[in-house]
Specification:
The protein is mainly α. Among the domains are: about 285-405, no CATH class; about 415-475, Arc Repressor Mutant, subunit A (Orthogonal Bundle), CATH 1.10.10.10. Helices cover about 70% and strands about 0% of the residues. It is built from 26 helices and no strands. The protein has helices spanning about 5-15, 25-40, 40-50, 60-75, 75-85, 90-110, 110-130, 130-150, 150-170, 175-190, 195-200, 205-225, 230-240, 245-260, 265-275, 285-305, 315-325, 330-345, 350-360, 360-370, 375-390, 390-405, 420-430, 435-445, 445-460, 465-475. Helix 12 (about 205-225) runs antiparallel to helix 13 (about 230-240), helix 20 runs antiparallel to helix 21 (about 375-390) and helix 23 crosses helix 26 (about 465-475). The longest helix has 20 residues, at about 285-305. The chain is globular, with a radius of gyration of 25 Å. InterPro entries: Sig_transdc_resp-reg_C-effctor, TPR-like_helical_dom_sf, Tscrpt_reg_LuxR_C, WH-like_DNA-bd_sf. Keywords: DNA-binding, Transcription, Transcription regulation. This is HTH luxR-type domain-containing protein. It holds the Pfam family GerE.
């Protein structure tokens, strides 16, 4: 049942088994796993402690690693590493589990390079053991660490490859839940929102992960000017019972949506209320984003015209949010921290834009350039925002450009006349939905040459993908 993606049913059978004779320790350990994957952390911890009291042989090491995993989930990385140091086993499956936990802890204790190396060792040990569970755990933790340290492209590549392999093997989606969630956060950061839209959330994915994937999709919707309220509410219904951590994460998504709708005061209040009562499991990066969103909304509110109700004491609100900013735990956190201070006029927007470029996070880079307000920065931001179809940001750029009387270049439509005859041939076949291989066969070219032509066509037309290039061609013929 667990392997089929039915942890709730598996937990029910395990509870029945606890009423009879047998290896109670093994049953409790399996129950802990089901409870944890379902998101029932308090019950999972109690079950684990009961199993620990009965453990003998290899189960002692397995449960010690599970305890370290629990400590890791609570942010107690040093304690988790100390517990793992006492684990002595020749079992590759247990060793892979221990390395997966250790790698995350090392990364969040400040040594990302060492942590990723340990997680690669975990993948190797998992391969040797033949355990799909440990292999997916290692990949899940690796993509988590990479995404958390701003290496979203690598995280997305590894995550997509892993999902493809699991799909070919016909394995239950429940084992890919963490990988799917990590992939969703990286696709969101990279501005690959259409891929995020297309990322499926099978019914077998546990509710706590399914709901968080929905939040990522909802944020991408909001940044494109679409109303995500229904999707956020759907995510809230997927969570079973009260969950303070999820409520805080949902508050950030709602704040992003409120800002996109111009409801700046509501966004400020959401962020203030959430950071005033933070759940312990919320990561420093999540707190940073909440503070940055609140400070940004406060700045938007103070500069908004018309009859918009202003903050009673904007300076006090600013100080309140600045005081809540935690220490950064990685490169991406560091830029979020700088962004939060820049919203309060205490950092350089152009430098922050460059840092977002290095992390390959185009939306955030465009936002920083919009705040910067220099003519070329605004034009750069405009091109990116339109490519991403980030309509609220496009409107923000237009308002800024009008105020500063800066001409934007987007009104100059891309012209097919700039294409060479061969590029026009390629564009025509793109419009028919042909692949590079099919185009190569029809035009008697190498696939590599066709790839270069496609890249030139997209660049000259300012198109973000093949479909957009074909649409531009149809509009002008």
């Amino acid at each position: 049942m667990r392997w089929e993606g039915r942890p709730q049913d598996a937990a029910l059978e395990l509870r029945k088994a606890l009423l009879g004779a047998g290896d109670r320790c093994e049953v409790l350990y399996l129950l802990w796993d089901c409870q944890f994957v379902m998101g029932d952390r308090a019950a999972a911890h109690e079950t684990l402690l009961e199993a620990k009291g009965l453990a003998t042989g290899e189960m002692v090491a397995r449960i010690a690693v599970a305890e370290a995993s629990w400590l890791m989930s609570q942010g107690e990385y040093s304690h988790a590493v100390a517990k793992l140091a006492a684990v002595d086993t020749d079992d590759d499956e247990i060793r892979a589990y221990a390395l997966s936990v250790k790698g995350v802890c090392e990364a969040f204790l400040g040594d990302v390079e060492r942590g990723t190396a340990t997680l690669e060792d975990a993948r190797t040990a998992a391969h040797r053991s033949g355990s799909i569970r440990e292999l997916t755990r290692a990949v899940g933790n690796l993509t988590f660490v990479l995404g958390s340290s701003g290496q979203h492209e690598r995280s997305a590549r590894i995550g997509k490859e892993a999902l493809t392999r699991l799909g070919i093997q016909g394995l239950a989606p429940t084992f890919s839940a963490v990988i799917r969630y990590n992939l969703s956060t990286s696709l969101l950061a990279l501005g690959r929102w259409q891929e995020l839209d297309a990322l499926d959330v099978p019914d077998a994915v546990p509710g706590n992960k399914a709901a968080r994937i929905m939040l990522c999709k909802a944020e991408a919707m909001a940044l494109r000017g679409r109303d995500p309220d229904d999707l956020i509410e759907q995510a809230e219904k997927v969570i079973e019972g009260p969950d303070a951590l999820f409520s805080a994460q949902a508050a950030y998504t709602r704040a992003v949506a409120a800002r996109a709708k111009g409801r700046f005061r509501a966004a400020v209040e959401l962020c203030r209320e959430t950071v005033a009562d933070l759940p312990a499991a919320l990561t420093g990066g999540e707190v940073l984003r909440l503070c940055a969103a609140g400070l940004g909304a406060a700045r938007d509110l103070q500069s908004a015209g018309g009859r918009v109700t202003k903050l009673d004491d904007p300076e006090a609100t600013e100080q309140e949010l600045l005081a809540r900013i935690p220490a950064p735990q990685g490169p991406e956190d560091e830029v979020w921290r700088r962004l939060a201070f820049a919203e309060a006029g205490r950092d350089s927007w152009d430098e922050i834009a460059v840092e977002w470029d290095r992390l390959k996070m185009p939306y955030q880079a465009a936002y920083a350039r919009t705040r910067c307000g220099e003519p070329e920065a605004l034009r750069h931001a405009d091109r990116t925002a339109r490519r991403l179809e980030a309509l609220p940001l496009v409107k923000m750029i237009d308002r800024q450009a009008r105020r500063q009387r800066i001409p934007l270049l987007h009104k100059d439509k891309p012209r097919i006349g700039t294409l060479t005859p061969r590029e026009r041939d390629v564009l025509e076949l793109l419009g028919w939905g042909r692949t590079n291989k099919e185009i190569a066969e029809e035009l008697v070219l190498s696939v590599r040459t066709v790839g270069l032509h496609v890249s030139h066509v997209l660049a000259k037309l300012g198109a973000s993908n093949r479909s957009e290039a074909a649409r531009i061609a149809r509009d002008q013929t």
